[in-house]
Write a structure and sequence with these properties.
magnesium ion binding; binds 4-methyl-5-hydroxyethylthiazole phosphate; binds magnesium ion; Aldolase_TIM; binds the ligand Cc1ncc(COP(=O)(O)OP(=O)(O)O)c(N)n1
Length: 207
């Protein structure tokens, strides 16, 4: 198992980190404390800001030797030479794989669905993401999922990502259910000190 396939997966949020300096400072704290992956997730639609911030995060992630994943935007991922996360209506995994190459990390949202998991695995996804498992402040309307799905998708032999409302209190149960990577927004960036939050979560994961 390579290093990015297990551990914490931090997702940025444009409301929690509204300006460049806050975004970079808080992502650096999380990277320094030990995360496996960082996703740039910005729903603002401000193309200039997205390009600038994603480039700054790429330089930071290179420094920490941690992969950067871009949410939704295959063209931006291609320009930066980084990974990509695609939801059910964000475009084709097959096309993204062709454009980004065999080594690129391409993740797929599978919600609570074995069918989505099978399809995404067949199309060349690098990891499968399930959730939301708990009430989420970031995406309250995301379809709910049952932890049992994590055991059911072990047969695809791809890293299983769990997302949605995960924090220090429920991370242990989520890992025990089969998650390899734990994806969080508020559980990391909703805290005053994201580095301390990452250290606590890593401790809780090891228990
Ligand atoms: C790791 C991870 N899992 C799931 C998602 C959700 O993707 P999507 O369903 O496309 O929703 P948005 O994030 O685009 O609102 C994700 N981004 N990352
Ligand atoms: C993007 C996404 N997809 C399902 S839940 C979610 C948000 C996760 O954020 P939080 O960890 O704050 O619940
Ligand atoms: Mg999406």
């Amino acid at each position: 198992m390579t290093q990015w396939q297990q551990g914490l997966y931090a997702l940025t949020d444009e409301h929690l980190m509204p300006d460049d300096a806050t975004l970079i400072d808080r992502c650096e704290a999380a990277l320094d404390a030990g995360i496996a992956l960082l996703q740039y997730r910005d729903k603002s639609g401000d193309e200039g800001k997205r390009e600038r911030q994603a480039r700054a995060l790429k330089a930071l992630c290179d420094h920490y030797d941690t992969p950067l994943i871009i949410n939704d935007d295959a063209a931006l991922a291609w320009r930066l030479g980084v990974g990509l996360h695609l939801g059910r209506s964000d475009g084709s995994i097959v096309r993204a794989r062709k454009a980004l190459g065999p080594e690129a990390i391409i993740g797929a949202t599978c919600q609570d669905s074995l069918e989505f998991a099978e399809q995404s695995a067949g199309e060349g996804a690098s990891y499968l993401a399930f959730g939301r498992f708990y009430p989420s402040r970031t995406k309250p309307d995301a379809p709910p999922a049952d932890l049992a799905i994590l055991a059911q998708v072990a047969r695809f032999n791809l890293p299983r990502v769990a997302i949605g409302g995960i924090d220090a209190d429920n991370i242990d149960a989520t890992v025990s259910a089969g998650a390899d990577l734990i994806a969080l927004v508020h559980g990391i960036f909703g805290h005053d000190d994201p580095g301390a939050a990452v250290r606590r979560l890593n401790q809780a994961m090891k228990r």
